């Protein structure tokens, strides 16, 4: 009994301490990402003011774990998940020497960037799709691993070398905005909207709502396991 209790205690102690440290690292990175986004919104607002005052770029804080950046017809939603995760053993990151050298590196905080049409949120169009542009994994060493769409045009696959800096966070935010702006809306085929129900009309569904062309992921996305 004592041996089993000791084993449970050691496991909880090591994992809990590691996960608390990872959570703190991730929250710090998320707060830095927030500040970078605020600064970026300010600079773009100043530049646009001299050209076209009708184009509005806005930053909005939702809570400690979410903020929005609205620009033109696009909305970027940055979310930090409150849980620490791990990945399946077959994921390429889990097979790397860097992770295998320290079991604590098997756990990650994660921050996600989603792209929505701004009007989808404004008019509460619940069936409108959003797109995951990128997921940033943060580990106990405060290193990061980025999974995302090809349009981000970023290559940060070697976690052992990827240290969080203000420059990398700014590049991530700017790339997400560029990917969103360059991915145009396409109207649905007329056959898809030729007939709708009264319920769909009342709920503002299927009323010629355009969708993004779509994003292609640069790496195989695998389902994470939340702890």
Describe the structure in brief:
Helices cover 35% and strands 22% of the residues.
Averaging pLDDT over every residue, what do you get? 81
Number of strands: 10
Structural class: alpha+beta
Rg result = 21 Å
Largest sheet: 6 strands, antiparallel
Number of helices: 5
Which strand order do you get reading across the main beta sheet?
Answer: 1-2-3-5-6-7
What fraction of residues sit in β-strands?
15-25%
Ends distance: 26 Å
Q: How would you sum up the global shape?
A: globular
As a percent range, the share of helical residues equals 25-40%
* Uncertain ranges: 212-227
The string of secondary-structure elements, in order, is HEEEEHEHEEHEHEE
Write structural notes for this entry.
- By secondary structure, the chain is of the alpha+beta class.
- The chain has helices spanning 2-49, 97-100, 118-122, 166-182, 198-202, and strands spanning 57-63, 66-71, 74-80, 85-86, 109-117, 131-138, 144-148, 185-186, 211-212, 225-226.
- It has a six-stranded antiparallel sheet with strand order 1-2-3-5-6-7. The protein has a two-stranded antiparallel sheet with strand order 4-10.
SSE layout and pairing:
Elements: H1 2-49, E1 57-63, E2 66-71, E3 74-80, E4 85-86, H2 97-100, E5 109-117, H3 118-122, E6 131-138, E7 144-148, H4 166-182, E8 185-186, H5 198-202, E9 211-212, E10 225-226
Helix pairs in contact: 1-4
Protein traits:
227 residues; alpha+beta; two-stranded antiparallel sheet; 5 helices; 35% helix; 22% strand; disordered C terminus
């Amino acid at each position: 009994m004592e041996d089993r209790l000791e084993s449970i205690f050691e496991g909880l102690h090591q994992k809990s301490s590691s996960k608390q440290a990872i959570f703190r690292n991730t929250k710090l990175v998320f707060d830095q990402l927030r500040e970078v986004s605020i600064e970026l919104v300010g600079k773009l607002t100043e530049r646009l003011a001299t050209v076209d005052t009708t184009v509005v770029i806005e930053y909005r804080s939702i809570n400690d774990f979410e903020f929005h950046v609205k620009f033109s017809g696009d909305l970027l939603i940055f979310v930090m998940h409150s849980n620490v995760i791990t990945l399946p053993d077959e994921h390429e990151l889990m097979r790397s020497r860097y992770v295998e050298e320290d079991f604590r590196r098997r756990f990650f905080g994660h921050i996600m960037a989603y792209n929505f049409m701004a009007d989808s949120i404004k008019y509460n169009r619940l069936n409108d799709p959003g797109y995951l542009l990128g997921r940033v994994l943060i580990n106990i060493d405060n290193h990061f691993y980025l999974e995302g769409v090809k349009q981000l045009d970023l290559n940060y696959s070697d976690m052992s070398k990827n240290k969080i800096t203000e420059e990398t966070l700014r590049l991530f935010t700017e790339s997400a905005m560029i990917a969103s702006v360059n991915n145009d809306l396409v109207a649905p085929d007329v056959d898809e909207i030729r007939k709708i129900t009264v319920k769909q009309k009342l709920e503002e569904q299927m009323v010629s709502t355009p969708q993004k062309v779509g994003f292609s992921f640069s790496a195989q996305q695998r389902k994470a396991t939340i702890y």
